[in-house]
Design a protein that fits this description.
Elements (H helix, E strand, L loop, with lengths): L4 E5 L9 H12 L1 E8 L11 H14 L1 E4 L1 E4 L9 H9 L4 E7 L6 E5 L8 H9 L9 E5 L5 E5 L5
Parallel strand pairs: 4-5
Antiparallel strand pairs: 1-2, 2-5, 3-8, 6-7
Helix pairs in contact: 2-3
């Protein structure tokens, strides 16, 4: 299968009143994410999921007929940073490929915290999660992306 790659550019933020904000906004306007389509086998679930939520999500995706969120993944391993429920819903729907945003932990655009305590994870901790074969407990990590990840509008039929 040929891999499809799309370049997505974050929209420029409105310039603020001070120089530091203007510089931050200028940098953000140049930030882009790569959106790629990978085979479903590439993706590795990272956390325990709620089966009822997966079913509900699969029903919504099926009814809409569109895939609206590329999964952020660790580029080398397919480890799902955010979107384990969406991955399970895709498998339930029999999708053979999914859009993703390949990233690496340590990327300045990613902030990862513990859901329960709000404490940030070190790069070493994150890499030990990636290297482990164990699923993390439900809602262990909370990923924030700056700028926000782009939305997609991909027909589910194209992903079958």
């Amino acid at each position: 299968m040929t891999e499809t790659v799309h370049r997505i550019f974050a929209p420029p933020a409105e310039a603020g009143g001070d120089l530091e904000q203007a510089n931050t906004d200028a940098v953000r306007s140049q930030v882009r994410y790569l959106v790629a389509v990978r085979p479903i086998e590439f993706f590795r679930q990272s956390e325990v999921i709620d089966d009822a939520h997966v079913q509900e999500l699969a029903n919504r995706i099926s009814a809409l007929g569109l895939w609206t969120s590329a999964l952020p993944v660790e580029a080398g391993s397919g480890y799902v940073m955010d979107g384990n429920h969406r991955l399970a819903a895709a498998r339930l729907l029999g999708l053979r490929r999914l859009p993703c945003i390949p990233l690496q932990y340590g990327d300045k655009r990613i902030d990862v915290r513990c859901w329960a305590s709000g404490r940030g994870y070190t790069l070493g901790e994150l890499m030990s999660f990636v290297e482990s074969e164990q699923l993390l407990p439900y809602k262990t990590t909370r990923h924030a992306f700056m700028p926000n990840l782009p939305e997609t509008e991909i027909s589910v039929g194209l992903l079958r």
